[in-house]
Amino acid sequence: MQLKEETLWLDDHKTAELIGVDRTAVVKYIRNIYKTNELNKDSTCAKIAQIAADGKIRKMNLYNLDIIIAVGYSVNSKKATQFRI
Fold this sequence. Notes:
Number of domains: 1
Helix content: 40-55%
Mean pLDDT: 89
Structural class: alpha+beta
Low-confidence stretches: none
Radius of gyration: 13 Å
Largest sheet: 4 strands, antiparallel
Shape: globular
């Protein structure tokens, strides 16, 4: 989790944990949000480099609060309902 420029940034794993669904569902919702132009990828997604456990550098996506909220409103789960409240 990161707080930058007055917004929250989470990766898809943390977003899935927050909303209470599998990571693959979050990725599917995010893909659909971008496909339908509900939100702009350039302003809601940032790539960062991270060192993995095996020592390799991997790029990962971080998503800002706008995407997290959009996914939270798309998902039907108890945690997502709590998130919306």
